[in-house]
Design goal:
single chain, about 200 residues, mainly alpha, 7 helices, about 75% helix, about 0% strand, globular
């Protein structure tokens, strides 16, 4: 016969699975961070080489070919990150014997992607208007808001990642010469740190 505390723990677990998307993979966060760091390094090379690596950044992207390469690289990294997250979440879902596309999972995706989609359209408008210097802070801020918004439907820990993205976005807005560096920290370093913590806390 089960003890009352065991029954309560099982009930709590069942309720959590019905209301929260628990298949989010920490390893996907780590890999997304690595992709972002590699992309940032390549972008830095395209934009600033052979200038010294330190000091305030005063170079702007005015070469059409470089700009096209940056846009292509961003789309490739986005596709890699989303594809990796889907594959590893599907794998974790099978391990937990749960369905990936639960109502909680759908609510999580809606809460995450509406701010991301709106932010993407807004950043596209910035690019078309030539306000490239504020694209980095805008992406960080909208992504941070998306994570905080989605945290109520999944592991609540991701809200701390969202707060970190918001802080970096605001810093980047006041120091636009370091936009690529803050972008690399936000989408690269913070993802690696967060993903590692989530992997050791939930996935092992």
């Amino acid at each position: 016969m089960k003890k009352p505390e065991q029954e309560l723990a099982e009930i709590k677990s069942m309720m959590e699975r019905s209301t929260r998307f628990l298949s989010l993979s920490g390893l996907a966060g780590v890999l997304a961070g690595i992709y972002a760091l590699l992309a940032a390094a390549l972008s830095y090379y395209w934009i600033y080489f052979p200038n010294p690596p330190f000091g305030f950044r005063t170079t702007f992207v005015d070469d059409g070919q470089v700009f096209a390469k940056l846009i292509t690289l961003a789309l490739v990294i986005l596709a890699l990150s989303v594809g990796t997250a889907y594959f590893l979440s599907q794998k974790k879902s099978r391990r937990l014997a749960t369905n990936l596309w639960t109502p909680a999972g759908k609510r999580f995706l809606q809460a995450l992607f509406i701010p991301v989609l709106v932010g993407g359209i807004f950043c596209l408008a910035l690019v078309l208007r030539g306000y490239l210097i504020v694209v980095a802070p805008a992406t960080l801020i909208f992504y941070g808001l998306a994570l905080i918004n989605a945290s109520q439907f999944t592991l609540s820990d991701i809200k701390y990642l969202g707060y970190g993205e918001l802080i970096l976005g605001l810093i980047s807005a006041f120091f636009p010469g370091y936009g690529l560096i803050t972008w690399a920290i936000g989408f690269g370093v913070l993802h690696v740190v967060y993903g590692s913590m989530m992997y050791y806390k939930y996935d092992r």
